[in-house]
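Got a spare moment? Tell me how you read both lines of this record:
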Amino acid sequence: MTCNLDKGSFSDASRARWISDDCAMLDRLGLTREIVARRLRMFRAAAETGIGRPVGVPPHFEAVMDDARGRLPCPFGDARAFAKLNTTIRNLATGESAVVSDLALHMIEEHGWFGDPASPFRLGPELLARIMELP
């Protein structure tokens, strides 16, 4: 498996290296960014039905969506903006959770960007795989 990312679209060498490292981690986990994004979209769709209330997702997950109003542009320059919607995914068996914005979902799916390793908002492949029990 590979990420098949166009490294030429990244202006920052550090960002390209972090994306490459995350691609390698996805390979080690037996995942692709598309698999991760598909699972995130499943939780997002479930959460959307709850209109701000937690929704149970079998076998032992919970998802809730909140709206902060407004839009955020994609920093990768693809001229897209995303609603400030956040989906909190909780694994009720382990107690772990992650908050995934619509922008973060787009950046994972389209750009292979899981976040700066030093950022408190990073959604690393290993964290998401563990919380969502992938593969």
About this structure: The chain has a mean pLDDT of 92. The chain is about 40% helix and 25% strand. The helical segments are 13-29, 33-48, 102-111, 125-132. Residues 18 and 117 are 8 Å apart (CA to CA).
